[in-house]
Design brief:
The chain is 26% helix and 25% strand. By secondary structure, it is an alpha/beta fold. The protein folds into four domains: 173 residues, FAD/NAD(P)-binding domain (3-Layer(bba) Sandwich), CATH 3.50.50.60; 111 residues, FAD/NAD(P)-binding domain, CATH 3.50.50.60; 85 residues, FAD/NAD-linked reductase, C-terminal dimerisation domain (Enolase-like, domain 1), CATH 3.30.390; 73 residues, BFD-like [2Fe-2S]-binding domain (Arc Repressor Mutant, subunit A, Orthogonal Bundle), CATH 1.10.10.1100. It is globular and about 65 Å long. It is an enzyme of class 1 (oxidoreductase).
Length: 488
Amino acid sequence: MNARRVVVIGYGMAGARVAEEIRRRDPDGARIALTVIGEEPEPAYNRVLLSSVLAGSLDAAAVRLHDESWAGTHHVDLRPGVTVTAIDRPRRVVRLADGAELPYDAIVLATGSRAWLPPTDGLVDETGAPAQGVVAFRTLADCARIVAAAKPGAPVAVLGGGLLGLEAARGLAGRGNLVTVIHPVGHVMERQLDAGAGRVLAKTLGALGIEFRLGVLAAGYVPGDGLKLDDGSSVPADLVVVSAGVRAETRLAEAAGLACDRGVLIDDALRSNDPRIHAIGDCASHPGTISGLVQPAWEQAAVLADLLTGADPAARYHGTPVVTRLKARDVDLAALGEVHCEVDAPGAEVLRLEDPARGRYAKLVLREDRVTGAIVLGAPDAAAIITQLYDRGLPAPADRLGLLLGRTALDTPRAASPADLPAAAVVCRCNTVSKGRIVTAWKSGARTLGAVAKATRASTGCGGCTDAVCGILDWLGAQDGEPAERSA
């Protein structure tokens, strides 16, 4: 039987992951002849960690998902730096900019999203590209341009107070820039935070050298003069970093006649309205999840690999309950579920603790004694316990205040460290890695963070679990009398 020809369009995090998952189930390519096409010339990289590259704590090589030998070792026809110009559905071929045509039996669209530039005078040139002194924060190349342009001590304006905008602002402030965040809403991260949490977060970041202009719009940009705001004021800026949102990259899909609405519309089998064409990640629209986070994309990749290889024809994707984490040095923030639920919401128990002087804010939403939403800022112990309750659907402890403070228990005495969690506890949400799998990797010889990451993928997603994984390694090393190493 001839192998099915599967073409993955997009070599970002989602495209790389679905290729890995397919080869995990079909290592020698007997069932799937796999081609991966990427528009960016470099190997796939972890886009979630770009803020760490911007901050200087990681270099470009450290965030790569694959080395140069990956494609050959795994029987993948990898074509980086190549643009797909069209999908010819009647003929079942993918057309490339170099004139080549690739026949397919199935396509996986993993085209991701593109940065959105607001219609502000001076932000774009006559071609629609960012003007001189303006850089969107989206790709590894963008990071390099920002670092090259952001001289220490120079004023930088960040357009957008969402998750990526704040991560960019923190990274630039850590490099010594004078950073001002301009955001049109009255508080930052309004999708993930309520107004109280937004105020405390802005105060915390303000103490780290970041200024905020909230509830205003940028009206115009003139290189050398900075940004003019719609309230008549101005913000000095030698560089403008734009992180004002993204749009699903659906232009190829729309041209091919696929149904799209804020992404390619997909069902639980991750199929578009053409059953031969699937979509995953930021370019896809599924009612059970939101875009912009890595965990849904990787869960979708696993389901789709099961379906394409025949490993599990009944596999279906039903959505992902996500936890958002801000990856900014000296700030610990987690938000999940019903973050905007009010105290008087029917059927809900809502508790709130605000301590802005110490940079702490905690909000907990429960229904029928289960955690359905939370915002936890500046309290990592509480965040760890609440996230475990949310993931496992366990009843919340009766001591609600202790839970908000991180001083209560799950189903064991209060854990003094992540190492004391039960074996089933999920340590890495992005890859659904439990403490038990990390212990197993240790027993199989993984003694470093890098080795554990290679064996289990823990810490290779958003990176938010790195300290927890290292804590478990330290604990295991102490038990065995063999110190763990935190380097790769």
